[in-house]
Specification:
- The chain is of the alpha+beta class.
- It is built from two helices and three strands; from the N terminus they run H-E-E-E-H.
- Strands 1-2-3 form a three-stranded mixed sheet.
- The longest helix has 16 residues.
């Protein structure tokens, strides 16, 4: 899983057409990978992904950045022993996820739905 400490903001994307939005996102992604974003481009977002997956940290509780609504914390992948369909023990991949959100902006049910959707997407990936 790639390290993604922050997601840059593309600004007021509603003012742009789809082709312009796509070019702006591609430009931001390219410059983010080579650490060439400006401070302005790294602020103003509403959602952050914090990945400690390259460390020994399996679970953590990230703190929301000022002015944002949510932050998703991703821990490292580990193998966990689980009971298989035949009743035996199998090792399966496991990753710790933690979604911290501002209750003033988002109710717990939609936040839980979002985290469930993320889990389902991860579980659906080929290992």
């Amino acid at each position: 899983m790639p390290l993604c400490p922050r997601v840059p903001s593309s600004g007021r994307s509603n003012d742009q057409g789809r082709p312009s939005q796509r070019r702006a996102r591609q430009d931001l992604a390219t410059r983010a990978k080579i650490n060439k974003l400006t401070v302005t481009e790294m602020t103003g977002g509403t959602f952050t992904v914090s990945n400690l997956g390259l460390t020994r940290v399996e679970h953590f509780t990230p703190i929301i950045n000022a002015g944002q609504i949510c932050i998703l914390g991703i821990g490292r992948f580990t193998d966990r022993a689980v009971r298989g369909e035949d009743g035996g023990i199998e090792l399966r991949p496991h990753v710790g996820l933690s979604l911290t959100f501002d209750h003033r902006a988002l109710d717990g049910a939609p936040a839980g739905d979002l985290l469930t959707s993320i889990c389902e997407e991860i579980e659906g990936m080929a290992v």
